[in-house]
Amino acid sequence: MDTYDILLYGSYLLIAVGAFVAIVMPLIKSLDNPKSLLKTVVGIVGIAVLFFIAYSISSNEVLPKFEADPFNLTPGSSQLVGGMLITTYILAIVALVGIVFTELNKAIK
Question: In this predicted structure, what is the pLDDT of residue 19?
Answer without folding.
Answer: 96
